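Need a sequence for this fold. Nothing fancy.
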């Protein structure tokens, strides 16, 4: 599968004939308008309009905006529901794509609960997509704590400061320094299950 990050919490994942878009951002965030063709659109925080802007999505697509288990073509989703301080439901998205599991935690600023961690441990997490810039998502300290708890094979940090962004976030350099990785952002990555690291966690920094 191929993964690109477009800013904020927005991911595009391509697998064969399917294109999955997660949390498409709205122009209100200050970044250039996001547009993409998709067959599946999944929202981890559907009540937040800056994370659920569907006007830029083209083509006929299946919309997922509630917790539950879904089977969609070559994709399987376990969306674990939780309620924020305003009692609004969000969800953690654990995807199974091409025999790899990818966890997108979305806009979360808290530790995961024991129940959530038990469910994730039962399935396993190969790829962790995690916010690192603070604001509406985890900061460096919170992200590091979650990374050491889950221990994914591949780590993709997102939701950090970008030119034009209205939300005040920390730069990716802070997380890279804390993790001790070289700052070499890539525009996209192509991943196969057989190429996932076996022993040490690999970190790939994406740029829009």
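Here you go.
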């Amino acid at each position: 599968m191929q993964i690109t990050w477009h800013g904020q919490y927005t991911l595009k994942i391509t697998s064969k004939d399917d294109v999955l878009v997660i949390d498409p951002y709205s122009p209100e965030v200050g970044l250039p308008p996001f547009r993409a063709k998709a067959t599946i659109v999944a929202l981890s925080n559907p009540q937040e309009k800056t994370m659920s802007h569907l006007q830029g999505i083209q083509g006929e697509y299946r919309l997922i905006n509630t917790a539950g288990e879904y089977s969609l073509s070559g994709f399987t989703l376990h969306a674990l529901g939780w309620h924020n301080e305003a009692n609004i439901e969000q969800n953690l998205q654990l995807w199974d794509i091409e025999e790899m599991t990818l966890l997108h935690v979305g806009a979360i600023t808290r530790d995961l609960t024991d129940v959530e961690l038990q469910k994730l441990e039962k399935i396993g997490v190969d790829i962790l997509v995690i916010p690192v810039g603070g604001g509406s998502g985890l900061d460096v300290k919170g992200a590091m704590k979650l990374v050491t708890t889950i221990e994914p094979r591949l780590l993709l940090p997102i939701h950090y400061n970008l030119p034009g962004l209205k939300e005040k976030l920390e730069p990716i350099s802070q997380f890279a320094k804390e993790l001790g990785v070289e700052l070499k952002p890539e525009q996209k990555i192509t991943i196969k299950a057989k190429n996932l690291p076996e022993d040490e966690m690999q970190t790939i920094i994406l740029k829009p």
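For context: The domain at 2-203 is CATH 3.60.15.10 (Metallo-beta-lactamase; Chain A).
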